[in-house]
Write a structure and sequence with these properties.
Oligomer: single chain
Largest sheet: none
Structural class: mainly alpha
Radius of gyration: 14 Å
Helix content: over 70%
Number of domains: 1
């Protein structure tokens, strides 16, 4: 699962960067293509407390990731590129980053 998370993080990072830097407005279509990967990560995350944190904290994290997923789905339905970017960049990617190795993140290709 670690490799899948790394790959998903990189894809979302690239989509976010293209949106911010080049004002590419097709982030809805790009995210739609990777919904199965997003769904797989969310289900994997919800399946088990992988951090060993207090149950109350973990349940709060689970509720938050479901809200983020709902924001992503709502943004795609409404083709709201701003909401989608915010939900991905400041929501889902924060959760993915918990599992992304720092070396991998720093070593990514910034030449989009």
């Amino acid at each position: 699962m670690e490799e899948k998370i790394q790959s998903l993080y990189q894809k979302l990072r690239d989509i976010s960067a293209l949106y911010l830097i080049y004002r590419m407005q097709n982030n809805v279509e790009q995210v739609k293509k990777i919904i199965p990967e997003i769904q797989e990560f969310v289900l994997w995350f919800l399946d088990e407390n992988r951090f060993g944190v207090e149950e109350e904290l973990y349940q709060g994290m689970c509720q938050n990731i479901i809200v983020i997923l709902d924001d992503i789905l709502q943004a795609m339905e409404q083709e709201d590129i701003v909401l989608l970017h915010d939900a991905v960049a400041y929501g889902l990617m924060e959760y993915l980053q918990l599992f992304v190795e720092e070396e991998q993140e720093e070593g990514t290709d910034d030449n989009l």
